[in-house]
């Protein structure tokens, strides 16, 4: 892996931990460096960055001062996402809040424009984003988790718990419902 790419990975991690950079800036820098995706492990305090070639690089991150809750609360994660998007909190507080909501890690697919947050039991919620410098936030859609019992799908969908999916659109776009697979 090229040293300049590793340097960008380290700089993005350090700048995030020191609250000197926003998520849109991280996305832009990583995409320009050729990074395809990354995984943040809140318990181990590390991020692994991946290139399309299959190469990966591990970077130590600042530890989160909160032990993640046992139960995963997608609405708590969504509230933390909204708070950081609206600049009500910074990255360190964001990590604490998603941990309080039971999140133990998250994956960001730069190519897929999606962040997936997961809990101890692999319960997930995801957020879609665009890589534009003029992002706007707040369009929210709701989706059901897929039903395990296909024969009872109607009843299952009626009783299924819901995940919140926040879609980030360019300022010039009209709001549209987001669709995301679990």
Automatic annotation (TrEMBL):
InterPro entries: DUF1398 (IPR009833), YdfO-like_sf (IPR036696). SUPFAM superfamilies: YdfO-like. Pfam families: DUF1398 (PF07166). It comes from the Bacteria. This is Uncharacterized conserved protein YbcV, DUF1398 family.
């Amino acid at each position: 892996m090229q040293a300049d790419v590793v340097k960008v990975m380290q700089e993005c991690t350090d700048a995030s931990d020191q609250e000197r950079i926003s998520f849109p800036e991280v996305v832009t820098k990583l995409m320009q460096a050729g990074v395809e995706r990354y995984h943040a492990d809140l318990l181990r305090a590390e991020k692994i960055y991946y290139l399309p070639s299959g190469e990966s690089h591990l970077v130590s991150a600042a530890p989160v001062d909160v032990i993640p809750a046992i139960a995963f609360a997608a609405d708590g994660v969504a509230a933390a996402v909204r708070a950081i998007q609206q600049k009500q909190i910074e990255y360190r507080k964001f990590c604490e809040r998603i941990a309080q909501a039971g999140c133990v890690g998250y994956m960001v697919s730069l190519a897929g424009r999606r962040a997936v947050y997961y809990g101890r039991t692999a319960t997930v919620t995801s957020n879609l984003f665009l890589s534009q410098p003029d992002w706007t936030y707040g369009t929210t859609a709701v989706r059901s988790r897929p039903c395990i019992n296909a024969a009872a799908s109607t009843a299952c969908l009626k009783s299924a718990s819901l995940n919140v999916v926040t879609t980030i659109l360019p300022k010039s776009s009209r709001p549209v419902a987001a669709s995301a697979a679990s």
